[in-house]
Design goal:
mainly alpha; elongated; 3 helices; 0% strand; single chain
Length: 60
Amino acid sequence: MDYSFLAKSTYEYHLRSRWKRYSDRALLSLIKVVKRHNPSFGYLPMTDTLKIKYGLKPGL
């Protein structure tokens, strides 16, 4: 059977996640820093900033 059509990520396992994990205190301090610089940010801009700038995936 020919498997050349499969993407590499289909059969290769990556042990490390590309998303960072923070403790609750560290996450709270990051949110405070972002909120201090952008007081009008709501949920979506805040989560986008955490994801893009700090490499955090919300919900983990």
